Amino acid sequence: MARWVEEEIRTRMAGKGYRKLTEFQGILKLMEHSKAKEIIPQWQPSVDKELWNACGACIRACANVVISLYEDTAQVDDELCEGCRTCYYVCPRGAISLTP
Fold it and tell me: Same domain for 31 and 66?
């Protein structure tokens, strides 16, 4: 995990009074997706059509199945995306950018 991601998670946890990741995860699993989005900073991915080459790495890596192929470009369902950033990390071409 990238150091800045870990720091962001630890800062957020400390602000909410959590000491261990397992405490934090348990609460998130019980929450509705829309409520979880309120307490966790969300990073919405967007796909650069010029850089994207249809390798499918982002689609395969998305645990929530929110990335799909539409008109020869990867499309992200912003309503269902949890902002985990996995697509960003696995893209070999840097075709996915993140916005808070």
Answer: no
